[in-house]
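== Sequence, structure tokens ==
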Amino acid sequence: MSIASPTSPLSPPADVAETAGAVPAEAAVKTRRRRADLLVAATALVMAVWVTGALWSDPAHRASGVNSGDQAFFEWLLSYGAYALTHGADPLFTHLLNVPDGVNLAVNTSISVYAFVFAPLTILAGPAITFLVILTLNLAGTAYAWYWLFSRHLGANRIGAAVGGLFCGFAPAMISHANAHLNWTAQWVIPLIIAQCLRLVRRDRPVRDGALLGLLIAVCFSIAAEALFFTALALGVFTLVWVLSRRSEVKALVRRVQTGLGSGALVAGVLLAYPLWLHFAGPQRYHGTGFDPHVHNEDLAAYAAWPARSLAGAVGLNTDLAANPTEENSFFGLPLLLLVIIGLVVLWRRTDRGHRANLLGLGITAGVFFLLSLGPELRWLGRLTAIPMPEALIGGLPVFNAALPSRLALIVAPVFGLVLAWLATALSRTDGGSMRVTLPGPRWAWIAGLTVALLPLVPTPLLARERAPVPEFFTSGQWREYVADGGTVVPVPITNDLLPDGQRWQAAALADAAGAGEGVFRLPAGFFLGPGGPNGTGRIGPIPRPTQTLLEKVAKSGAAPAITEADRAALRDDLRYWNASIVVLGDDVHGAHWPTYQPALKSVMTDLLGPPQRVGDVWLWKAPTA
């Protein structure tokens, strides 16, 4: 972890040390800091609302324009968490999805902490509102948390910390993942973990500080386990470099740090014992995501490109170099790339030995993650080059095989943010911060450089699209007249990541049941990660049964094929396998990435099961009893 003091890791940040013993001066510093904190928090919140504004215009009927499937999945997780909390159900394994096998949520992104904390809001307002509140707070909270870390622990003054923190909170990768990823946008917890590691080094309360670190680790595992893994790797790389650079200071720290890490491991181990067992040894687990690292690797050119949802993108300067719109994990733009490299060199040459160890650690950490993000084979301008890269050596190892290489670029953004914070601190004429260097050349040239680097990256609002409301048949509880508690509702088409309606129906029923204390229906298949991929890896949803395959083809093409007796027999087998009570088709079928054809689905289902009943605002077929 980075050490703010230029002389010793045991020293407090400079602005605190200098005011010690001077009560009036300390009070003035605290007042100015409080005002700065409020201003940065307000700015971050306004920016977050700006980015998510298209969703806020109508939360119940609008969804992510590029990733509505993931949004439906996170809304389901929020509802299921509220239901599990009020019904005493297992929050990390459920048989409500993927009948009859169930789903291991520990190997998915369970976000149980969010689901529990926001359960009252989910019950009161529904999962769509809760999703949007969390997404907005994630962006604002991440920006503020990095600002807090930079200003309190890493030597930046308030202006510098604001520049660096706002960059980190609204970096291209954050805006990209704001397309429905509640896990990757929750990076506010990472600065808290880093700060707690610094406290282990700087003060002599290792048991208490270690216990709090363990708690933060457990929280981060619940929200974004992959981000926790990346953070641990980055801190490990930085610490190794720092230790090699400052050997003389290490001996005094070893016992304290060991005690703190032991305390943290104990707390985290107790809190995560069951989730870790489920993750590595529980039912419906898998090893490796099954996503191709040759597809989900960062394009080398993407580091100098601009992102889609930015001012540069708005005027057509963005480049389509990401695997999909949610994975623009670098996209810093050439001006920022050059500014950070020049800034690192200048800061290195003009600062003291204490900060040089920090700069070296930051540079090497960013370089390691930059190389690893390129995946097993170098990609340039959208084409694989057959040039092997270092990630090929570790990508098949346990845990590493569950991470997408391109996301390793997420570690580079906070490094850039800290360099920006230090440069802005050096340029600022206000007091505070330990990074006090004089930058060469005219001050206006550096300010112009920061403007040219950062202005094109100012985010533009996320895209949104219309989404049909959940049918009243489910929101009113009318389904209970046709399905016994624990019975299975079969949505048409069968739910997966591309056709998420069924999971949204169940999410609404779960939120209602969480508040009313009642039960809920089950679903076949669903959108989740589970076993079934090649060589023991995971896949999205179960291996589809014949009826699921048939209905997905119809939904996507609009072509209603001639139905045979074999199709009808396969449907009866599938309904028995799922223990189905009813089959339901809404008036509007939502496709996450392509148009759907509800009339064709109704025609095919009529051929399979006969004419449907019109019940409320859905079409319904009772499952055959034999």
Notes: The first strand starts at residue 62 and ends at 64.
